[in-house]
Amino acid sequence: MNIALNVTQPVPLSSGEAFRHKAVVREIKGLNWENLDGDDLQVVMYLSYIAAVEFAEALRLALDLYPSHEGLLEMAHGELKTKNLLLDDYRDAGDHHEFLAHFLEKHDLTEPMRQRLGRHADAYLAACRSLDENVRAMTVFSREEELSGIFARMLDAEDWSYPGLYAFRHYLSRHITFDSGEGGHHDLVSSFPIDDRVYPFYAARLETFRLVPHLFELTPAAKAGCDTPSERPLM
Ligand SMILES: [Fe+2]
Known about the structure:
By secondary structure, the chain is mainly alpha-helical. The protein has a single domain (22-223), classed as Heme Oxygenase, Chain A (Up-down Bundle). The chain has 10 helices and no strands. It has helices spanning 20-29, 38-65, 70-77, 96-106, 110-129, 133-154, 165-180, 185-188, 199-209, 220-223. The longest helix is centred in the N-terminal third of the chain and has 28 residues, at 38-65. The structure holds fe (ii) ion.
């Protein structure tokens, strides 16, 4: 897998879509999340952990850039060194990636996943970290708008019985509440403008999902002839 920042075959816009990154978000939501098995979901949990590591970095950059934005400060309280994800023996204040790290480690998933996916995870992190700090901050504000819809699609998977997945489901469902409720994270940072400079971030995110081939098998809706997720590589 080549996690690309220079995308030569952009996901096509549909009518009414002003930004290319919106087309990638639509494509991610249109993947076949219902098709995932327990092993796939453990992979998605690990990828979400990696994404959350980078999110915390980008959020700290945003705080450096906009230290007096009250909405951003309040949003950050719900993301960094927080107790809003407490579950079972996870009782300490932490960044949200630390919650996922705790349950990956508890269920002996960290090392097998690192061996299986570490190279791809490193490529994703390098792609994100190569973006300008203003753009990385913008991806944070954009994620507060977009991730709740993507997380809701992940929850459409059916088999949450594998070790650690109960914690991942908790992480996803709590985030939807944090981000999308009235006065939630999205509302708190909605004054920051977002444009297509965030496109490479979403392109890199979509590339990580290519590690889960079941996502790219046709959905029932696609088989019926509509809303087909693209299977072509982005580069
Ligand atoms: Fe959030």
